[in-house]
Amino acid sequence: MFAHILYGGDYNPEQWTPDIWEEDARLMQAAGVNMVTLGVFAWAKLEPEPGRYDFEWLDQVMDLLHAHGVRVDLATATASPPPWLVRLHPAILPVTVDGVTLWHGSRRHYCPHNQDYRKQAVDFVTRLARHVRDHPALALWHIDNEYACHVSECFCADSIEAFRQWLQQRYGSLDALNETWGTAFWGQQYGAWEEINAPRRTPSSVNPAQRLDWQRFYSDSWLACFKDQKSVLRDITPHIPVTTNFMGFFKPLDYWEWAAQEDVVANDNYPDPGDPAWMVRSGMVCDLMRSLGNGRPWLLMEQAPGQVNWRQRNLIKRPGQMRLGSYQVLARGGNGIMDFQWRASRAGSEKFHSGMVPHVGTDSRVWREVKKLGEELPRLDALLSSRVQSEVAILFDWKNWWAFEQGDKPSNDLRLLPLIEALYAELFRRNITVDFARPDADLTPYRLVIAPHLYLMDDRAAKNIGRFVADGGTLLMTFFSGIVDEADRVLLGGYPVLLRDVLGLWVEEFVVYLESQTNQVETTEGHRFACNLWSDIVHPTDAEVLASYREDYFSGTPAVTRHHFGEGTSYYLGTALTKDGLKWLFEHILEDAKVRSSNAVSSDVEITRRSDGTHTWMFVLNHSNDEANVELSQEGMDVITGVPVKASLVLEPKGVAIIQLDKT
Ligand code: GAL
After folding, report:
1. Which residue's alpha carbon is nearest to atom 7 within ligand 1?
2. In a domain, 105, yes or no
3. pLDDT at 582 over 70
4. 455: number of Cβ within 10 Å
5. For the purposes of burial, counting CB atoms within 10 Å of the CB of 20, is it exposed (0-12), middle (13-18) or buried (19 or more)?
6. What is the CB neighbour count within 10 angstroms for residue 90?
7. CATH code assigned at 620
8. Hey, whose CA ends up nearest to atom 11 of ligand 1?
């Protein structure tokens, strides 16, 4: 889609005078910037009064950028409605679950169901697109910004009415809705559509099926806003790709549905630089982005060049940290590195958020690092069409995430992401790349599929997973999986009823632990590991027991099992194992599944590969503050330095090498 690895950032020139624009364009060129995201919050500047447009400054900026070889990812600017729009239509403002109106004076202050907002946004985007359609700098459309950030749902009358319509579409009849939502319980039987409300503040917990549908509905609602604009842009500028920026594992939006609407997946990533596991978490996000686009190259749309301003304590990125995180994006299938923002603001909420050009200007560490990266990236253009291949997939489904974490469970301390992170970390430190996949996706490319807390499971998913194992795949499923259907109704017949044959077991009951409580599991080889949180009481039918509990009334019953089903094997993990236990388990599973780990050097050295069918590049990223010695199985050439690489490689602290491997 693009001829170069993209490099740049959010550019908000409306904060600066034209003489600074000139300097910006010169500096961008000096830093190797080839793309900026322009005008994200500029609606009020571009339409200062209803129907009066001021595109002159935008033209000047775009001309200037074009003259300096910088292309434009033009934002549609609808993420911050102008104050006049609020004055004319105060009902656009979002309302919280407690009925509190959220006012303007910040950003993202609109309800996606307000028709005045929707109409004004479409009118504005139509004007903007017509105005810029032939501009040579226009390369990409950036629709709105971080949909559902700050305000993910609105409880105004328009939203509730739209919810009723959405439900009518989904269920057709009240009988069907009543049946699916299980309204016979707690006397919730509905006799008219108008009786149905949003899941507002209620005396006790709201009907879980209602809440789950509301989350589906709200993800669809934001997507409808995106589609409004996309269809305008497709009509006026069919040659320009469209995107919007995601926020990693962001719960309110089902990004599988969203990514299908985008020409290129883009993501904003702001790991906490003080988090010792930041590279693992960021790696997981990168892998999700690649997976959302079915392996297609994706873009890092925003990261901080230094520190952010919105945490309680905003740690700075240490020397080399920004570069390392940037290369991780490329190592995991990304083709662009963009920052927020180009020049640090002097006013407004984000004035202490770092910029590629800091307040102190170019005599600064951040600028030197920005420039160095900009000098290096063009050496990687040969990688543009290469892809990352994975043999392992983790099943991830937003509906399941919503249902799993909505309360009223045996333990309401179970969370999906911590388990996924723990499992992912086992693979990450062995340098095994992971895809994320929908439970009903084509699983044939994988040797190993992991299903963590797949609580909500429909028939399609269950059949898909069963087929995968029957055809020779290896499955790892964890506790509290396969419990409910798509409406959060329990699947009766012994959990997880749809996969009992595949796993060779059934689960009778769930034992929840106090926070201070642990148990022990003992493997058949005699190893002992601690476990906590939860234990399933498992009855094997055909499964073989690999480890059993040591304590409590269920001492001696299975904690970990294995079952050969068809041509494949399924593992079941009925408890939360601590790190050493997971390590033991993965050693078994990976060997069984014949998943190779590429150059597992140490947990501080990350290694991935990209291939285009002709060439393979190996990325080696040293996360540590010490030198790393890496033994290589193949020789090649480091494309950043141009230096040949023989059997081993010494990487400086936070160092990166990208080796084009010799053909063997
Ligand atoms: C993002 C947002 C940007 C900027 C950035 C700061 O959420 O899209 O506009 O606010 O955070 O880290």
Report:
1. 146
2. no
3. yes
4. 23
5. middle
6. 13
7. 2.60.40.1180
8. 340
- What values do phi and psi take at 235, rounded to 5? -65, -45
Contact 656, 379 (CB under 8 A): no
Q: How many residues does the chain have?
A: 664
Question: How far is residue 488 from each of residues 171, 179, 404, 439, measured CA to CA in Å?
Answer: 15, 12, 9, 16
Mean pLDDT, all residues of the chain: 97
DSSP 8-class letter at 484: B
| Residue after which a domain boundary falls, among 570, 593, 616 | 593
Domain range holding 502? 392-593
Ligand 1 neighbour 487 (Cβ under 6 A):
no
pLDDT confidence bin for 599, thresholds 50/70/90: low
Render the burial of 242-255: b for 16+ CB within 10 Å, e for the rest.
bbbbbbbbbbbbbb
In a domain, 384, yes or no: no
Distance 10 CA to ligand 1 centre (A): 9
Same domain for 553 and 434? yes
Both structure tokens of 295: 């392996």
* Integer Cα distance of 502 and 462 in angstroms: 10
Distance CA 73, CA 397 (A): 30
Please tell me the distance from the alpha carbon of residue 259 to that of residue 267, in angstroms, as a whole number.
Answer: 11
pTM: 0.98
User: How far does the centroid of ligand 1 lie from the alpha carbon of residue 340, in Å?
Assistant: 7
Which tokens go with 414? 């179970």
